[in-house]
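Q: Fold this one first, please.
A: Sequence and structure below.
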Amino acid sequence: MKKTILLLTFVLASFYGFSQDALYGVRAGYNISNLDFDPEVPTGVENAHRNGFFIGFFGEYSLSKSFSFAPEVQFSAEGAKDQELRINYIQVPLFFKYKIGQSLSIGLGPQASLKGHSYEDGLQNLGFSALGGLEYMISDEFFIDFRYSYGLTNVIDDNAIGLEAKNTNMQIGVGVKF
């Protein structure tokens, strides 16, 4: 709980920390996610991808002409198709963007995820991921983007012996900047 409060404090403070060239916006779209099991998928578990959606709100702050920082809060339906492996998250991506051209940006950053449903279901309540993506500005306000995240933490609760699964997720989205 202390980690969650600290993370949310950092995100909220970052909104006030940058005053020049700030943009705010919303993005939403389609998720394709799955779990990457190690050493192998357990017997009786159908590890098929889950199709879901996401919606989020962000701020984007210019650090220079080419670099910007974009903290975000989003809801994302992830996990696998199997009902017991579906995980809905409230996520906080901290995205650092580099502008390649007039309309194209690439980005990298960490992402923290807090499970948004049953807390004693054998799945971890808090997870961390690495995030990468592309953004293409269609106009001055509207954009399309693609992001890929790979889980850095095991989504299976530590009580499960010898089983590890990491969340993988692709997001295809559209958004608007104000």
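Q: Good. Now the second chain.
A: Here it is, same layout.
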Amino acid sequence: MAKINGNEIKPGNVIEHQGSIWRAVKTNSVKPGKGGAFNQVELRNLLNGSKLNERFRSSETVEKVRLEQKDYQYLYDAGEAHAFMDQETFEQIEIQKDFIGEQEVFLQSEMVVVIEFYEEKPIGISLPDQVILTIEETEPVVKGQTAANSFKPATCENGIRVMVPPFVGQGERIVVQTSDTTYLKRAD
């Protein structure tokens, strides 16, 4: 592990602090008129999910933690968990559904995800930025409705609702951003 100064902590960094490991969610460098500068950091505990706001002065040092990242292929829904297979060793692991959270709706058969490990324990999962979904239900196209910024609701195969342009119809495949469930384009 490498030591970094408190003012060098950036969002996404994983640090060891107060005997646990934390991911920096937000950072704000503050330079008050009186006294030394500090970095106000919002931290999320990767082991239990709790949050903490902490001030780090530039003179303080923290341990930056390196996480092991591995590609896993999604296999199937195993009740309360999902099964994944290591792309290199073909070992299978199960990860609880509540650990995956809201991203669970985007899991598709044979999808490759990145799982982060700390001391052999999974602590994070990253899905691809975009997925291709089929529209199950949407309103029919209304003639003359060609306004550039008009969108209509559509329900996809996995149950999520996406706002799509009027020219997109039922049964079409679209590309959806997984981070905020927004329509990007029609799938090829």
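Q: Anything worth noting on the second one?
A: The chain has a mean pLDDT of 84.
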